[in-house]
């Protein structure tokens, strides 16, 4: 409704945001380099008592994984494993898991027993700074609500401390929770302004820019597009697809002090949900990744449940879509919902990608038909644990899936993965040349 927009149609709310255009997104195709291998169920789930989905690591300010007396920690959205998987978003709570070897993970329990904001908590990120854990999360719904709502705001909890011994690790409060970001209705759409599907203001992601030392939070939002505006050639249906990658800046570097800034990138007329945005700095470039769904692309664009990415020479961009279209990892056509919520992270000279194991033995074009399956089948076909980690070759504006590791294998910084990159990789001609310089020690050529 126009009255919800303080400055009316035509206002420049995007600042210098890059755009993911329809022309670029229309190039999305499954290719050899972008289709992930089929995923089979693991022998054992990380924690059979809960469904595990969106996951993030405890990281240092510089983005590297925190290692505390040899232990590393990840956080996941979780729900009891008896619950129908489709209902899990309505009761999500955050749990933590820890490991020394990055292969077997121990459940640590719920992070917040009491006090978290919202009626449930959705995805976020976690910072380990000066011995304190800061957990950024989405407070979804209203505390104590009788009828489920989908309101969202960005919250944080500070004050977590980590204790370790030979056996394991524990993360304890007391936590202080605070609401840190709400949409301003100018650069970021409010729920009242939203007129399309699935409103978003969520998924905070801590990032320190190595070039400037400045501190940021990225998040998933929507760009306001008032009714009657000329966006998308004035097409009111396409205007409903208005996903953005938002960003807030800390003026002081204090990880609790945030101010909204104009979005980094948006996808007006292209896609409604640019989920869990995050940046990996690799070879001096900024790789900006999001997850998105087939059903959140605007009419006329055929996308997939997949990881999408963009590259720029600086944090603010301009961003160019990777592989010309933005597609980096797609689920295979015969298992189109096998994984979701991808999270890229640097490991030595590579980029690895974590995600969760979603629905398998299911090849319908939409997830809507899941609800028609008998309940035991809905439960059986939901992975509910971490997916195999993907190894991604990244070279400038091109990426290629190279290989996968085991389910939930997150290598330690010291861990050598099979294969060596020669020092002079850059001198190899083009992308094919870079691949040719790869030597697998188990299968030397
Ligand atoms: C992606 C997502 C996130 C959200 C969470 C809720 O998997 O939609 O954006 O925080 O799931 O469960």
Can you put this structure into words, describing what you see?
It is a single chain. The chain has 4 helices and 26 strands. Strand 20 (339-347) and strand 21 form a beta hairpin. The chain has 445 residues and is mainly β. The chain is 5% helix and 41% strand. The chain is globular. The chain has a domain at 46-337: Tachylectin-2, Chain A. The strands form 5 sheets. Strands 2, 3, 4, 5, 6, 7, 8, 9 and 10 form a 9-stranded mixed β-sheet that branches. The chain has helices spanning 22-25, 236-239, 375-380, 430-436; strands at residues 18-19, 50-59, 72-80, 93-99, 106-110, 120-129, 132-140, 152-164, 169-172, 176-181, 202-208, 215-222, 242-250, 259-268, 275-282, 285-292, 306-312, 320-321, 327-330, 339-347, 350-359, 382-386, 388-395, 398-407, 420-421, 438-439. Bound molecules: beta-D-fructofuranose (FRU).
Keywords:
binds beta-D-fructofuranose, nine-stranded mixed β-sheet, 445 residues, single chain, 26 strands, Tachylectin-2, Chain A, disordered C terminus
In short:
It contains 4 helices and 26 strands.
**Could you give a short account of the major beta sheet?**
9 strands, mixed
CATH architecture identity of the domain at 46-337: 5 Propeller
From the structure provided, what is the oligomeric state, counting identical versus distinct chains?
single chain
First CA to last CA: what distance?
Answer: 64 Å
The CATH topology of the domain at 46-337 is Tachylectin-2, Chain A
Instruction: Tell me the β content.
Output: 35-45%
Helix content: under 10%
Task: Please work out how many helical segments DSSP would assign.
Answer: 4
Q: What small molecules accompany the polymer chains?
A: beta-D-fructofuranose
Structural class label:
mainly beta
Instruction: Please mark out the parts with pLDDT under 50 across 5 or more consecutive residues, or reply none.
Output: 5-11, 420-445
Helix-strand topology string = EHEEEEEEEEEEEHEEEEEEEEEHEEEEHE
Overall pLDDT score: 92
Please compute the radius of gyration using only Cα atoms. 21 Å
Strand segment tally: 26
């Amino acid at each position: 409704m126009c009255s919800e927009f303080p400055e009316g149609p035509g206002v420049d709310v995007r600042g210098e945001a890059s755009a993911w255009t329809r022309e670029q997104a229309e190039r999305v195709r499954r290719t050899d380099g972008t289709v992930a291998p089929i995923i089979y169920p693991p022998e054992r789930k990380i924690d059979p008592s809960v469904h595990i989905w969106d996951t993030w690591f405890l990281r240092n300010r510089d983005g590297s994984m925190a290692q505390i007396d040899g232990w590393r920690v990840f956080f996941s959205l979780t729900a009891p494993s008896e619950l129908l998987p489709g209902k899990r978003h309505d009761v999500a709570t955050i749990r933590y898991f820890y490991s020394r070897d990055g292969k077997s993970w121990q459940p640590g329990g719920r992070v917040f027993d009491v006090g978290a904001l919202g009626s449930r908590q959705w995805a976020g990120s976690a910072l380990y700074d000066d011995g304190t854990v800061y957990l950024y999360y989405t407070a979804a719904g209203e505390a104590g609500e009788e009828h489920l709502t989908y309101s969202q705001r960005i919250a944080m909890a500070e004050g977590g401390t980590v204790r370790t011994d030979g056996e394991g690790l524990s993360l304890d409060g007391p936590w202080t929770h605070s609401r840190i970001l709400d949409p301003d209705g100018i650069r970021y759409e409010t729920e009242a302004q939203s007129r399309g599907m699935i409103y978003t203001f969520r998924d905070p992601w801590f990032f320190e820019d190595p070039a400037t030392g400045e501190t940021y939070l990225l998040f998933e939002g929507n760009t306001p597009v008032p009714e009657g505006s000329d966006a998308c050639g004035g097409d009111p249906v396409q205007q409903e697809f208005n996903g953005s990658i938002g960003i807030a800046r800390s003026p002081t570097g204090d990880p609790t002090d945030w101010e909204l800034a104009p979005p980094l990138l948006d996808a007006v007329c292209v896609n409604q949900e640019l989920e869990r945005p995050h940046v990996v700095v690799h070879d001096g470039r900024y790789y900006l990744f999001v997850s998105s769904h087939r059903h959140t692309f605007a009419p006329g664009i055929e996308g997939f449940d997949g990881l999408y990415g963009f590259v720029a020479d600086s944090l603010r961009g301009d961003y160019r879509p990777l592989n010309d279209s933005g597609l980096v990892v797609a689920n295979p056509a015969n298992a189109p919902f096998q994984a979701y919520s991808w999270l890229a992270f640097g490991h030595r000279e590579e980029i690895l990608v974590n995600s969760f194991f979603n629905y398998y033995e299911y090849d319908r074009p939409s997830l809507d038909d899941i609800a028609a399956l008998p309940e035991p089948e809905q439960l059986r076909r939901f992975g509910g644990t971490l997916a195999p980690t993907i190894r991604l070759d990244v070279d400038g504006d091109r990426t290629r899936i190279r290989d996968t590791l085991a389910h939930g294998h997150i290598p330690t910084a010291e861990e050598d993965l099979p294969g060596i990159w020669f020092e002079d990789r850059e001198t190899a001609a083009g992308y094919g040349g870079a691949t040719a310089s790869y030597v697998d020690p188990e299968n030397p050529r």
